[in-house]
Amino acid sequence: MLKDIQNQFDDRNLAIDKVGIKGIKYPIILRDKRKGSQHTIASINMFVKLPHNFKGTHMSRFVEILNKYRENISISSFKEILEEMRIKLNSEEAHFDMEFIYFLEKEAPISKQASSMDYLCKFSGSVFNEGVDFILTVTVPVISVCPCSKEISLYGAHNQRSYVTISVRYNRMVWIEDLIEIAEKSGSSPIFSLLKREDEKFVTEYSYDNPVFVEDIVRNAAQYLLEDDRIDWFEVSSENFESIHNHSAFASITIDKKNNS
Predict the structure, then answer these.
(1) Are 236 and 252 in contact (CB under 8 A)?
(2) CB of 177 within 8 A of CB of 220?
(3) Does position 4 have pLDDT exceeding 60, yes or no?
(4) CA distances to 105, 160, 163, 168, 201 from 141, in Å
(5) How many helices (H) and strands (E) does the chain have?
(6) 123 pairs with which residues across the strands?
(7) Is it the case that residue 120 has pLDDT exceeding 90?
(8) Which end of the chain has the least Cβ crowding within 10 Å, N or C?
(9) Pairing label, strands 16-32, 94-107
(10) Is the confidence at residue 12, as pLDDT, over 90?
């Protein structure tokens, strides 16, 4: 029988907060609000807390658990995966997060030509003795037109691509599509993969008519999130990649609706 080195005693009396595997690429199937499901690739991290008296953790067990759930890695299975990690690795805590690209088919505003847009998303979950924590995060590109530039210029206004990131804890199902819609409504205009000339004219004029500062974007999104009773906690931020500066503009708001802060 081969010796189990990981289970040997360690006398340094130092627990490790997180130990495990990071950045493993894995195919997953996600629930899709419109089409039922979609396939994508995730970059997955799996960690547990290591007690001070153990020399190491069993890295192979993380992949074994991942393989077991390879056709059922979703929001609904997160708690089950985390509990199995904690039990099989003899730990008080388990942490599991995965980052992936989510695709939506969007129609251009005038020509109605359809194309796919990609959005960076993340599921982050942890299980402790006191319960389970889960956070859904989406990052959405939008257009932002500067209100100050529009006001002081004889013609035109500087605009930029902005990335709105929304993270939420919720008490009932929140779709990725729901958060994408909130982000896109909070900027000057959504962004599209395919635009014909008539679409480009519409988007240019529409965004010009709806100028927003980076502060406006996060406040707009925060208002929508505050009105949604499914959401208990949120953090919204926006980074505007300025077209007339060599730096970005940034703003964020975090609100715990349960604690009114």
Answers:
(1) yes
(2) no
(3) no
(4) 15, 10, 4, 18, 19
(5) 6, 9
(6) 98, 136
(7) yes
(8) N
(9) unpaired
(10) no
CB 46 within 8 A of CB 73: no
CA-CA distances (angstroms) from residue 238 to 16, 207, 215? 34, 17, 8
For the chain, what's the residue count? Answer: 261
* Contact by Cβ (8 Å): 244, 231: no
What is the C-alpha to C-alpha distance for residues 230 and 219, in angstroms, rounded to an integer? Answer: 19
Residue with tokens 């989406």: 138
What pLDDT does 105 receive?
A: 94
Question: Using CA atoms, how far apart are residues 211 and 146, in angstroms rounded to an integer?
Answer: 6
User: For the whole model, what pTM was predicted?
Assistant: 0.90
What DSSP letter does each residue of 97-131 carry, written as one string?
A: EEEEEEEEEEE-TTT--EEEEEEEEEEEEEEETTE
136-141 average pLDDT score: 98
The answer, yes or no, to whether residue 215 has pLDDT greater than 60, is yes
Residue 202 contacts residue 110 (beta carbons within 8 Å): yes
8 A C-beta contact, residue 79 and residue 41: no
Q: Is residue 149 within a helix (H) or strand (E), and if so which, with residue range? A: helix 147-152
